[in-house]
Design a protein that fits this description.
Elements lengths: L10 E4 L16 E3 L7 E5 L9 E4 L9 E9 L9 E7 L2 E7 L7 E10 L5 E4 L16 E4 L2 E5 L3 E3 L8 E9 L5 E9 L4 E5 L2 E2 L4 E4 L6 E8 L3 E9 L5 E5 L15 E11 L6 E7 L6 E9 L6 E2 L3 E3 L4 E5 L8 E20 L4 E5 L7 E11 L2 E9 L5 E9 L10 E7 L4 E5 L10 E9 L6 E10 L5 E8 L5 E11 L5 E8 L5 E8 L5 E9 L4 E5 L9 E21 L2 E6 L1 E3 L2
Antiparallel strand pairs: 1-4, 2-3, 3-10, 4-9, 5-8, 5-11, 6-7, 6-9, 12-18, 13-17, 13-19, 14-15, 14-16, 14-18, 19-20, 21-27, 22-26, 22-27, 23-24, 23-25, 23-27, 27-28, 29-30, 29-34, 30-33, 30-35, 31-32, 31-34, 35-36, 37-42, 37-44, 38-41, 38-42, 39-40, 39-42, 42-43
Amino acid sequence: MDDTTNNSGGFAKGAGGPFLNACADDCGGWSSATSGVGGHMYHTAADGVNTVNQWAKWTPSGLAPGSAIYEISVHVPHSHATSWQAPYVVSHADGTSSGVVDQYGLNNQWVSIGTSRMEPGQYVWTHDASGEVYDQHCAGTYCRLGVDAVKFVRRGTIYLPNVRTDAGWSPQLFLRNNGGGYARTVVKFLRGDSSIACTAQPTLFAHQSLWLNCHDSQVAAAVVESSQHLSAVASVRNSSDSRAALHNGVLPAGAGDPAFEQAATTLYVPAFYRALFGNTNSTLDLFNPSPQGTYVTFEFRGRSGYGDHTTGSYWVPAGGRLRIGAETVPFSPWVGSVRILAGQPVAATVSERNAGFERSFNAAAAGHRLQYVPAAYKNAWNLTTGLVVQNGGSNPVNVTFTFCERLVTNPNTCPTHTVYGLAPLRALGLNLENVGVLPSGWSGSVKITSSDNATPLVTIVNNGLKDASGTLVDGYSFNASNYGGRWVYLPYAAHNADGRTTGFTLRNVSGGHISGYAHYYDPDGTLRISYPFTLASAQAMGRHQSGDGLPNGWVGSILLEVSGPILAILREDAPGRSAGYNALVLAP
């Protein structure tokens, strides 16, 4: 937010003591200049020494309801800002804190004054009592205090749209500090009406992980705020039949890639079912993290032979959650895709369930021409993969699937399969059992490509587990992604913890040879063990934590540190039950 000439937009200035005698334009010792953000700034002599006379204040609008953690930065223009110790005071949810900025010599630069937990109505202010005296730092005069723009950037924010406690389900939230310092964190478990059910304020050290519960019977969603970059996964389990699902956290709109970890005003859901494939039904949980309420519309596009339906507008209050069930579609049975349109950025997860299993994935903010699936199967270890691809563009497109076995030596020899003419906003389903170029028992990775550079694809992956008779009895889902990185985080991993053991699969998307380490961390951030690995181009590998020398009952996190970009997913196995999630990717 910038300075204004008429004390509007949350900015004010004045003279005669803190917050006294607010005045517009040049006044009370303040002078303006055509410099800084927007070509305008104010400045005054830093001559108060230890007594405040001139002051300026920024009170931002749109701070998150309740509280959230923001990094606060001040802009220092190239002229009329020469104080060596310009004071700034932050009024925040935990009291006040002060910072000092050496403005001298800075040239249109943003300077961070730290992170604070802030609530609506709180503010930042500065004043002329810098402690500097005449001729101390600026020859023959007082130095000048420059006043320009201040920005408030929400940090370490993660949304969990589905953290439910209804119908026998109980949630658990896994957090990991991926940053280099202390992570001051606020966790809020919310009911569907946006009221707060539980709160926690843990501090996590580097590489530390923890898990949290809320036992309120109406919990629907959660929001995590932190001063460091965190990764988060929500686990929901059903006490009656041990069904489980793992949900990736979602970042604020515009936070970068991958698209399935972003809130947005348009979201894509490749697969939605009503009473199909063994009476599988989908449920969509949408969370509005914005400080304003919003209307949301759902466009259901049926696959071939199934109808279309567009809903009316649903109102979702700020911080509120909306659940859309399979019965929203006025056709039964039905299968298709969904486009979500909202007036404010929203986040959503989708669950697919029947009497035997539960699996889930995130709605995606955008698609990509190229996507990867790290783990795919055709009747291997009783697993078979189904891929659902949605055309997120406005033109028909051909979709090519390239299948590379795990230890492929020549990616140019990987077999392909093409589906032609996928219509805009429609989705196709491809069961690998029906792909003739793959032998039974095949396992590997998949590259998915759009024939049109301007037409993005959104893909989800269903890895289904069959019993000896060939009946689908369980499975897990995750999102395909085009976004690989050299630092990849798994905030939750386990070995025989309440009968649950995890395994991860990664795929080399660098185009060349890579080497790296899988670092296993205990919950307190202590490095327990590291395993080296190397992969050639397009190769994939898996590690199951049952064979990694971990003690029974171990729960912790894993960091994959690699010389080139990779993608990874994690699968959790329990007797007769499985769940999965996408690894968090940083640093391409």
